[in-house]
Amino acid sequence: MIETQSGRKIKTLRSDNGGEYKSDPFLKVCQDEGIVRHFTVRETPQQNGVAERMNRTLLEKVRCMLSNAGLGKAFWAEAITYASHLINRLPAAANEGKTPMEVWSGKPCTDYKYLHIFGCPAYYHVRESKLDPRAKKALFMGFSTGVKGYRLWCPDEKKIVVSRDVTFDEAAMVNQNKHEGEIEATKTMSSSKQVELLKTPVVPVRSDTTDTSPTVDSDEEDEDDEEEAPTQEPPQQQDSIAIRRSRREIRKPVRFTDIVAYALPVIEDDIPSAYKEAVRSSESVEWKKSMDEEMKSLHKNETWELVQLPKGKKAIGCKWVYAKKMESLGKDNVRFKARLVAKGYAQKEGIDYNEVFSPVVKHSSIRILLALVAQFDLELAQLDVKTAFLHGDLEEEIYMSQPEGFKVAGKENWVCKLQKSLYGLKQSPRQWYKRFDRFMIGQKYTRSHYDHCVYFRKLQDGTFIYLLLYVDDMLIACKSKVEIERLKTQLSNEFEMKDLGEARKILGMEIERDRAKGKISLCQKQYLKKVLQRFGMNENSKPVSTPLAPHFKLSASMSPKTGEESHYMAQIPYASAVGSLMYAMVCTRPDISQAVSIVSRYMHNPGKGHWQAVKWILRYILGTVDVGLLFQHDKVTGQCVVGYVDSDYAGDLDKRRSTTGFVFTIAGGPVSWRSILQSTVALSTTEAEYMA
């Protein structure tokens, strides 16, 4: 087509590695025509930047068009075709103000009257009997290639029709959007004073009114009793086209409220947010002392040197971050912690940093280590690296402003040239890991290929010593106490370490050991109690004995259908609750894997039925808060890896895909598990179990 229309020969064709571009018939055509093929490297879209950027532009327009028209993803092909049609007829600065069509054909585009809003109501002429209507209602989809007619979606016939005689009603769509906006604005004004923002991570959510309360009360729309639960059938779709929903209230994003990052109990009362607030508080003496300790540590580590800012360079800022932490569970003494953090968000990729990825130990590796400790009666120690990120060596030239309250007299305008990585820098975790990895390899330890944060070394007696690293937390296991002490000494000579003794807690997971019986348990009682408190579960809530009862038949059709329901669900902390449950599932609760997997599918647009299912899981947690993993010495099967796998059949009501579930155990305790939808639709129970 290009050669025929333009008279120019195609010499080179660059594309990604899609199957349509690498098929034998297509490659043969290119070879016959003398077209040289260039392929981009996998996962390297920048090698074909123009095409990839146009894909992004098209998808941005498609999302807006589908949202404005209230249509589902099934219409993406129609939307992207129409978006391409529009882009080809819009002026572009790269073309000196000309449209792509004008550059291609040499004819300017002057008539835009035939363009209409995608998805707007339209009436096309039909020839029926004398008494039948002369037109049918449809939705505008665009234009047909090679035909002078409009493409329309007819809901009654559920098919695309092409017609020349069409009347468009764009005003109806505009008026509908305007009316919904006025309704939403009214709701926002009336409820803005009643709804409180969620506070993360452990503060219970409360509201001044009962109708919009996001707390999980057992009596709030929760008549689901375990014994007398009525069977719920998912409501059927009335139409194949998605119903247009009212837009949710537009609010500033509450960033990070759905992230579960639980490591140490943090006291959130009276925490200053800035330096001036800290020095003026009633606890200013403690805060100043903690800042002095931080600065002493930074100077001891030679983190920076003061220099004048070179011409053409820009210094990033820094700030103080404060926290109060309990030294350990069961103690009332509070530690005041001040940390100097660089404002890494001001860094520019390629200038201030390049690579940022840094691995952390997998949870399955922690569980496997505990299983080995129980089976072989190993010693288990825990260490912490003080100011771990300060040990990393920087590879880039970075300048930072001096810390507030600690500017050197006479050099107030000088800046800090960073020599070591600092908390807040994007590359800090990676630089710390590279430094630690280099040290461990130098001590003749081997890095695991499965998990790059697991190190081990074989000793002369044939036993092994293991070390697991999660940022600045370490677990060490070995049969010999002498070898553990030797490794501790080596680490202390290289880094500033804190010996925590026998391991009791790691990443919010409590470790309890009965050495006489050869047992080790891993649970999250403290974390789960805080989660239950946060979402309003208390002694008045009724526990249940199953993670998800059979009467819950969840599907996408249970998503909000009205503006009122959407507004109600906007106040519910659905994503936060699912995220909290998901962290427990990943760490110590394989029993809720399947239930959490189901409710997590609807986080983008949950309905009341989905929220009822989440509350049911929380009620199950309420009755099993002490449940965890148990590893026990077993002379017969303790050293064996035992696996179980199964599947259901077409349990997903939306796509009728089956669910695979598996669990692997060592020393009688689960170390790896998962519940996941299968990638393809199984045609029988045998096929589903075979794929599992």
Automatic annotation (TrEMBL):
Q: Where is this region: Disordered?
A: 182-245
Q: Which domain of life is it from?
A: Eukaryota
PANTHER family, A to Z = TRANSPOSASE, PUTATIVE-RELATED (PTHR42648), TRANSPOSON-ENCODED PROTEIN WITH RIBONUCLEASE H-LIKE AND RETROVIRUS ZINC FINGER-LIKE DOMAINS (PTHR42648:SF28)
Please give the name of this protein.
Transposable element protein
GO BP terms in the entry: DNA integration
The residue ranges flagged as biased composition, category Low complexity, are 234-243
Residue spans of biased composition, Acidic residues class:
217-230
Task: Cite the Integrase catalytic domain residue spans from the record.
Answer: 1-108
Query: Which keywords annotate this record?
Result: Hydrolase, Metal-binding
- What Gene Ontology terms describe what this protein does at the molecular function level? hydrolase activity; metal ion binding; nucleic acid binding
